[in-house]
From TrEMBL:
It comes from Thiovibrio frasassiensis. It holds the Pfam family RNase_H. This is Ribonuclease H. Residues 51-60 have a biased composition (Polar residues). Endonuclease that specifically degrades the RNA of RNA-DNA hybrids. It is an enzyme of class 3 (hydrolase). The keyword Protease does not apply.
Amino acid sequence: MAAKKFYAILAGRVPGIYDNWPKAQAQVIGFQGARFKGFATRDEAEAWLKNPTSGQSGPGSSKPALKSSSGAGADTSPRDGVVSIYTDGGARYNPGPGGYGIVQVYNGARKELSGGFRLTTNNRMELMGCIVALRELEHRDKPVALYSDSSYVVNGISKGWAKSWRKRGWIKSDRQPAVNPDLWGQLLDLIEGLNITFNWVKGHNGNPFNERCDELAVASSRLADLPVDSGYKG
């Protein structure tokens, strides 16, 4: 879990700095054009309010693309007309009990999804978070911005690695078998025809939606009677 954060609300019901997410969330959820970021210290939050970053990551072409952000200045706030999806996943002990968490925001409407398996891996849960999010996607005709702290997932799609693996019968360029071909195949099928970008975000760096996804993933991994991850070959 991340340490205490400060949330700077630039555009919301009551702009300012908040020291907990529920209070900050009330200012932005359902507020069109909301703009905000989380920071480790109040000084950083105040500095951002005085000079907010103008660049925004989001959908570009119809092909999946990597847009990376690496710090507090990156703006990953939901935007009007764009389906913003935040995902996270992990497994305790890796491999071990695992879970994934998803937060989707579209024009102020928020949806959360989560799930878990009794024995799986970090990478499988990162992939599963994306798969479930896109499987449950309602607004398939809208631009989609997916945010993940997994470079494994983001690079696998953005750089075309997974597509190349599938073309070679799930064999990598080093002639070794690709790991998790069952999930990569599902993800490739789901992004087909979507106007989607995959964006890397630094985990536990003040992004409130990423932090919420982590909470959902951890909680799911601790549930009793989790199902079997039939695709995991331990």
